[in-house]
Amino acid sequence: MSRNADKLRLFVECGLVAGACVTIDRAQAHYLGHVMRRGIGDPLLVFNGRDGEWRARVDALGKGGGALIVHEATRAQSRDSDLWVLFAPVKRTPIDRIAREATTLGASRLAPVLTRHTVARRINTARLRANAREAAEQCGRLSVPEVANPVSLTAAFEAWPAERRLLVADETGAGRAIADVLIALGREDPVPPSAILTGPEGGFEAGELDALGDLPFVIRVRLGPRILRAETAVLSALACWQALIGDWREEGAAAGGR
Amino acid sequence: MSRNADKLRLFVECGLVAGACVTIDRAQAHYLGHVMRRGIGDPLLVFNGRDGEWRARVDALGKGGGALIVHEATRAQSRDSDLWVLFAPVKRTPIDRIAREATTLGASRLAPVLTRHTVARRINTARLRANAREAAEQCGRLSVPEVANPVSLTAAFEAWPAERRLLVADETGAGRAIADVLIALGREDPVPPSAILTGPEGGFEAGELDALGDLPFVIRVRLGPRILRAETAVLSALACWQALIGDWREEGAAAGGR
Asked: Measured between alpha carbons, how far is B64 from B26 in angstroms, rounded to an integer?
């Protein structure tokens, strides 16, 4: 969707200042040299989630890793949306999509939660993290969302911050229309931090939905009259959140200097 | 996302009345017998886009086709959202996703349009139609969206109905925030019919965006500061449309009697 899709961006761990030498690991060196066909002296952009985005050049590139030299800042670090996504894991392809697209849609934390109907119980968190990092690199974000380790639905709420509202996508259709809920949240001062929870392919168990509804920070929302796949529900709720109370309403330069 | 995902639904072409015998084709018979493991006497739901949803039973099932007997109506035909989606075709997996999810998100017409940067120019319209039909069966819709044959960007607007607003996802970030545009449309009386247009992976050409902006029915919208994949842009815009001025705000029973 961008004419700057060819702008190569890399997430790195080290601090970024002018003149810094940044080492990259084996996987990133392979990506740079073999997938993206870059060599010594080629330019790219780097970010680390703290110091904004910088122009850099490839200084060394080998089988075991490489090094970049940092030149000048291109964008200052921006504030992320404070938006958590809790989702019942689904199969490999859709869960990868959730990790990638929730990143692109600006979620700050991705947390797999195991519900009673959750079939996919073996979650490769490292793969989710890699997907999130790659999506951040490609979508122009200056940060990579945190990917939490999977926990049970009940454990997820044991140390829940009271002020954070949890919008539960209620597939029984019993909740409030999501637009109405988001517009009401947007009128609170300050706008409370949010989280979105979506269920597994089989839906929540009735008892789970009832227990969720009893939590003081939960708002049950509905996403229309049709049955959405788990990943479509996640992405739809995120898009509505960003459009109504997130950064889609803010003016300003788009990612990657578009 | 639904505990009724096991409810088998089939789109058929014939008229539906109590007692009618409905023939199904080879592919549907294979799906019923081999994929879903149903046999003579097993119940299912049928719809044809005109006569609502009906309970039926398998009456005959063979290699070349089969027959169903229609029993009683379960839902009356509902009015569809009047929402067209125009999209630059992308590769096979994402274009199949667009067809499936635009159906689930209630689009009434899917139209591939060829822009200058469109790489994927060979479009299998029959496969898109099959994806849309399957998605309609699974999401509880009572209709299957029309899938148009691909046309060029300019041809798409030659006979454009003047009252239909076209929201163009402008990846340069120059458009208005989509929520503001949708809220404004929702205040018009009557609410005008809409269409959404998203570009290819490489984005629209600058000249294309300028020409689009000159069309009297076009509203350029932005979908936030991050670079969205083509299919993420389609789904995000659709979800926002349904949430703000579509059927996600309507009260009432959800699909499949959830």
From this structure: 5
The predicted complex's ipTM stands at 0.93
- What type of residue sits at position B111? A
Cβ distance of A177 and B2 shorter than 8 Å: no
Put simply, the answer to whether B236 touches A105 (Cβ < 8 Å) is yes
Q: Please report which confidence band the pLDDT of residue B3 belongs to, taking 50, 70 and 90 as the band edges.
A: very low
Total beta-carbon pairs less than 8 A apart between chain A and chain B: 200
Partner-chain contact A2 B171, CB within 8 Å: yes
A100, A103, A48, A96: which is closest to A75 by C-alpha? A48
- Cβ neighbours of residue A138 under 8 Å, at least 6 residues apart? A5, A9, A104, B227
A124, A129, A134, A137 alpha-carbon torsion, rounded to 10°: 170
Contact A250 B223 (CB under 8 A): no
* Domains by residue range for chain B, with CATH: 9-75 (2.40.240.20), 83-249 (3.40.1280.10)
Contact A141 B169 (CB under 8 A): no
Q: How many CB atoms lie within 10 A of CB B105?
A: 29
How many angstroms separate the CA atoms of B133 and B117, rounded?
29
Cα(A16)–Cα(B219) distance, rounded to whole angstroms? 40
Tokens (6 digits) for A48: 């680390």
Name residue A23's beta-bridge partners.
A67
Neighbours of A184 (CB within 10 A): 12
**Chain B positions in Cβ-Cβ contact with residue A226 (cut-off 8 Å):** 104-106, 139-141, 254-255
* Tokens encoding B144: 């299957």
In chain B, pLDDT over 70 holds for what percent of residues?
95
What tens digit of pLDDT does each residue of B152-169 get? 999 999 989 999 999 999
The string of pLDDT tens digits covering residues B98-139 is 999 999 999 999 999 999 888 877 899 999 999 999 999 999
Distance from CA of A64 to the nearest CA of B (A): 31
Chain A residue with CA closest to B178: the answer is A243
Q: Is A84 in contact with A116 (CB distance < 8 Å)?
A: no
**Residue B29: partners with Cβ closer than 8 Å, 6 or more residues away:** B61, B62, B63, B64, B65, B66
Q: Residue B198 and residue A3: Cβ atoms within 8 Å?
A: no
Gap between the Cα atoms of A226 and B253, Å rounded: 10
Specify the pLDDT at position A15.
95
Residue A93 makes CB contacts below 8 A (sequence gap 6+) with none
Which positions in chain A touch B171 (Cβ < 8 Å)?
Answer: 1-3, 254, 258
